[in-house]
Amino acid sequence: MFNNYRLATNIQRVFAYAVLFILLVITIVPIWLLIVNATRSTTEIQQGLSILPSTHLVENYNILLGKGLDLPRGFGNSTFLAVASTIVTVYFSMLTAYGIVVYEFKGKQFFSNFIVVLVMIPMQLSIIGFYQYMSKLGLTDNYAALILPLIANAGGVFFGKQYLESIVMQDLIDAARIDGASELAIFHQVMMPLAVPGAATMGIFAFVASWNNFFNPFILISSLEKYTLPMLVQTLRGDVYRTEFGAIYLGLAATVVPIIIIYAFFSRYIISGIAIGAVKE
Amino acid sequence: MKRLSFILSLLVVLSMLLAACAPAATEEAPAATEEAPAATEEAAATEEAAATEEAAADLEGTLNVWAFTNEIRTMAIAFEGLHPNVDVVYTMIPMTNGEYQTKVKAAAGTADSPDVVALEAAFVKEWVEADLLADLNELLPLTEELKTFPSVVEVGSYEGVTKAYSYQATPGAFFYRRSIATECLGTDDPAEVQAMVADLDKFVETAAKIKECGTGDYFTVGTPGEMFNPFLANREQPWIVDDELVIDPMVEEYVKFAKLMRDNGYESQATQWSEGWFAGMNDTLKDANGTPKKVFSYFLPTWGLPYVLIPNSKSDSTDTGGDWAMINGPMAYQWGGTWVGVLEGSPNSELAKEFVKFVALDEENLTNWATGVYTNDYLKAIDPETPDDQAQAPGDFVSSQVVVEKITSSFDGSDLAKWLGGQNSYAAFAQAAPNVNGALLTGSDDAIQRALNDPLASYLNGDITEAEMWTQWLDAVRNEFPDLLIPEPPVTE
Amino acid sequence: MSLSKFKRNYYGYFFITPFIIGFLIFGLYPVYNTLALSFTDTTLMSKNADFVGLKNFTRLFADDVFMNAVKNTWIIWILNFIPQIGIALLLSAWFTNARLKIKGVGVWRALFFLPNLLVPASVAALFFAFFSFYGPVNQFMVRFGFLPEAMHYLQSVPITRGLVVFIQWWMWFGQTVIIVMAGMTSIPVSLYEAAMVDGATAAQMFRRITLPLLKPILIYIFVTSLVGGMQLFDIPFLLTDGRGSPSSSIQTNNILMYMKFASSKGHIGAASSVGVLIFLMTSICALGIFYFLRDKDNSEIDKSARRFFFKKKSA
Q1: What percent of chain C has pLDDT over 70?
Q2: Which residue out of A14, A128, A187, A243 would a mutagenesis test of the C interface target, given it has the greatest number of C Cβ atoms within 10 Å?
Q3: What is the pLDDT along chain B (493 residues), one digit of tens a residue?
Q4: Interface of C with A in 10-49 (CB under 8 A)
Q5: Are B392 and B243 part of one and the same domain?
Q6: Domain, as residue range, for B370
Q7: Do the Cβ atoms of B454 and C270 come within 8 Å?
Q8: In the 8-state DSSP scheme, what is residue C292?
């Protein structure tokens, strides 16, 4: 009886590892092939699959540049946009969340429910009205149209609220007040340093969201010199580059690899951050 | 309590939305129309100012040019070379899935509006017919001097106003591989091969011969998609007549023909502009088993030669240059072409006009353009940051008959002629160009034709019936043009 | 100088003011503007626009195009959500199972989550390259004898739709695993211990303890996934020709909206009407589910759990 139980457990364990392994292969293989193909020449790619990298990385890069696809500039644009978006999101979300968590004001409950409602409303679907409005303000083809709306980032506030509720220490705030610090100074000098881990997690998500965003910049940005990496990917799929497969894969890899590197360093933050929004509420 | 405030917050959002909507919707329209006269006044004012100054000083200023290829950038650099105080800011956006068309539309009339736009044949009419381009009638006398092909001017004009000019005329041709012709048809002589493909029936007979001779490894064309333009050029009526979509019998003919090519294995099934389609040009096309396949011919117009066929005829290991010949093929046609226009309200309209004049109506520029004067060295001397592939190879066919007559003989024995086994492509295009008919183009061609791509591909592939194909296409057209009358789909067997 | 507590609480308004201003300008007004535009025939190519009442909306229902897009969006979402949540429940159960002792749980989770971070546009372009007619998948399938001859994957409705579903699943199952697992680990072990004493089987425990206590989390996943799924754009847009081909089978709501925006004349009025309808549909579904299922969670679940144990105990 006991042995049977153990046997069943072992069989189940083997089965579980088998499933995990299959899932792992499914997860990793496309990414691996992408990276490998970025180092292979078009001829090699046309000859068949390979799981080992080749030696044509530099060649592919030169083809990309030669075709006028300015990958470094797209990289710079995406980085600028992502960093600016991250700063705006983290600062204003924490500010708003701090207001909700620390103060007891009339309408607080309403406001915090309102945030939850906003999280569940597909605001992106108002993009056409947003576009036309920005075009009247002369803000189309301008990164401001992508960054400023993040002042009111409901998802960020929601996350920030969940996080701050777990770390806010009323004693520290009171102590600072006795020292004569203003309320805003308390937020900046007492709360923000304490909230760094949560802010980092939120920042990583904000960064990735901006880095990966295709739809909004695709509608709002029109001049090629302001194109972000995902928009360049769309042009990569275009006519001009189709004969150069190695270069296309390299272009795709360039959008993906920086994120993988960030992930390799911060995966702990990211994974623990995902559940914060979901579990505590 | 929690639940109550939740409902309340919901209600507030909804009521704010609803309360605000009705009145302002009507407010917006007049506000939008007011902008137009102001913009033209401004343009007129700057025009006057510029005109008086012109005599005194050379051109100066910054010009924003948008285009869907890099071709015009070459001319922009040459323009900067002539006018050192002019800075042309060049933006290239690809036409993939209509991205360029959307971006220009979205930018026109806003603060980001370019000064000069390049417009492709498939959508130039849309712009010429709308009120976003400036009147360029004052340049018309130049077209007489240069004897610009009348069809080129016609395409850029609407109701007596010419708004766009082109440096190209784009008659089409049929390019084939001499080695395959010799092997399968017994000759590579252009006149004899032309006789074998003189009409569609003969073309199909020849396709059968080529398939048999190559034991299935030779395809007559890469894709019948290339032949859409020849069929379209031989329609009786344009796509739209009196706000109604017209399905000309030639469109149905084309569908039948494409199906026949697919079902008999006369085409490679590569999508036009895809890697497989290009691979056929340099003999690197392989099927999924790795078996090499060859493509006998390509339907391409003037620009197809320097921009598509020649650059793709070389791979790491193969070079098909010299093995090609060109003839008229089964049908006369034209395909594509790039027009340039100035956007209404451009603050640099005088400079923009000068640029259009230089690009499309300047004898020296057109001559340089067609004869390969704009080499990398030439361009880098003006702008050291010019990319390496910016040079303009000789052979693009220009819109001025004066220039064409002057330079045709210079292509005898040139590298270009050697690539074609000794033929002078310029002379051949010069013969075909007067037949080009611009009257069939409408502003909606691009959208209507693109909507057919997917249903047709599914039909050819056997995934849907012909009737389903027509329905899907007409639905897509209706969705694109809500105000267009859509006829009943053609009757299918 | 110290403020009275009452006065100090006014600072709450000060802290939330930037959010409210930002929301009014960049959140609410665009929604209102979209709604306003949806009653006009505004285009990008013309400076004139007229109020046309409900014409844009009636036109959407005049043919199958709009309903087809709605249908596609739901099909794609449902087909990827079910396996997503299924796999997540299974893996979470394994990962938290003390008896199985799966090694390296953190590493597995981290790897499964990776696709979620990749640029969706690149992922779509990657799969497009893999599945093109002369691409590597055909090479592989034909050379190893799985297919007699190369096929046009992206012209087949079931394969193309299946690919979108697969990519969506591939990108999101890792995240769902992490959230579900966090929920499972927050369930007190004592509940399971009590049940085990009562001789409950693993399946019983899963059904009567795990699932009910996971309900709030499952609803959270459900709602956020739904809201995201209804706005699906990048993957289907870039996987084929940007029109949702073949046979409009992956033409989602957002693609249809974009197509109206990018149509020949740039019909932003008509595009707005699509946006408005999808906005309403999604909001009603999401908020409805959230409101009806979530608010009663704690009490309900406590009750059902208690009922379960009391029954067992007394039996």
Answers
A1: 91
A2: A128
A3: 444 454 545 444 444 444 444 333 333 333 333 334 444 444 444 444 444 444 335 789 999 999 988 889 999 999 999 999 999 998 888 887 788 888 898 888 777 789 999 999 989 999 999 888 999 999 999 999 999 999 999 999 999 999 999 999 999 999 999 999 999 999 999 999 999 999 999 999 999 999 999 998 999 999 999 999 999 999 999 999 999 999 999 999 999 999 999 999 999 988 887 778 888 999 988 887 778 999 999 999 999 998 889 988 988 788 999 999 999 999 999 999 999 999 998 999 999 999 999 999 999 999 999 999 999 999 999 998 887 778 888 989 999 999 999 999 999 989 999 999 999 999 999 988 988 888 888 888 888 998 999 999 999 999 899 999 999 999 999 988 988 999 999 988 6
A4: 10-16, 18-23, 25-27, 29-37, 42
A5: no
A6: 58-169+337-406
A7: no
A8: I
Contact between B13 and A117 using a beta-carbon 8 Å cutoff: yes
B421 shares a domain with B362: no
Tokens of B235: 């329609």
Q: For A201-257, how does the pLDDT look when each residue is reduced to its tens digit (9 = 90+)? A: 899 889 989 999 999 999 999 888 899 999 988 777 655 545 677 888 898 999 999
Residue B24 lies in a domain: no
Asked if B269 and B286 touch (Cβ cutoff 8 Å), the reply is no
The answer on B423 and B293 residing in a single domain is yes
Residue ranges of B 275-304 with Cβ closer than 8 A to chain C:
275-276, 279, 285-290
Dist. CA A201–CA A267, nearest whole Å: 10
A125: nearest CA partner in chain C: C275
Each residue's pLDDT tens digit, A40-72: 987 787 777 788 888 889 988 888 877 667 888
Bridge partners, B340 (sequence order)? B118, B165
* Contact state of A223 with B91 under an 8 Å Cβ cutoff: yes
Distance from C-alpha of C123 to C-alpha of A237, rounded to nearest angstrom: 12
Distance between CA B259 and CA B263 in Å, rounded? 6
Which tokens in the block code for residue A90?
Answer: 């983290």
d(CA C36, CA C47): 16
Listed range (A196-200, A202-206, C4-8) with the worst mean pLDDT: C4-8
Q: Among residues B81, B292, B91, which one has the least CA distance to residue A68?
A: B91
Which of C5, C26, C32, C263 to mutate to probe the A interface, most A CBs <10 Å?
A: C26
Q: Residue B74 contacts by C-beta under 8 Å, 6 or more apart in sequence?
A: B369, B374, B379, B390, B391, B392
pLDDT digit string, tens, across residues B284-306: 888 877 789 999 999 999 999 98
The alpha carbon of residue B387 is apart from the nearest alpha carbon of chain A, in Å, by 7
The DSSP string of B420-442 is TTT--HHHHHHHHGGG---TT--
> Which of C36, C264, C265 is the closest to B25 by Cβ?
C36
CATH number (domain holding residue B423): 3.40.190.10
Residue pair B241/B180 in contact by the 8 Å Cβ criterion: no
| Domain limit, last residue, from B359, B390, B406 | B406
Which 93-112 residues of chain C touch chain A by CB within 8 A? 94, 99-102, 106, 108-112
Q: Which of B15, B21, B72, B93 would you mutate first to test chain A, the one with the most A CBs within 10 A? A: B93
- What is the least distance, in Å, from the CA of B455 to any CA of chain C? 6
Which chain A residue is nearest to residue C36, measuring alpha carbons?
A129
Of C29, C183, C290, the CB nearest to A133: C29
> Which of B353, B360, B327 has the alpha carbon at shortest distance from B168?
B360
Instruction: Go through the domains of chain C in sequence order and give each one's CATH number.
Output: 54-314 (1.10.3720.10)
**pTM score:** 0.86
Whether chain C has a CB inside 8 Å of the CB on A245: the answer is: yes
Give B333-356 as a 3 state SS string: CECCCEEEEEECCCCCHHHHHHHH
Residues in chain B within 8 Å Cβ distance of C247: 454-455, 458, 463-464, 468, 472
Residues B147 and B90 in one domain: yes
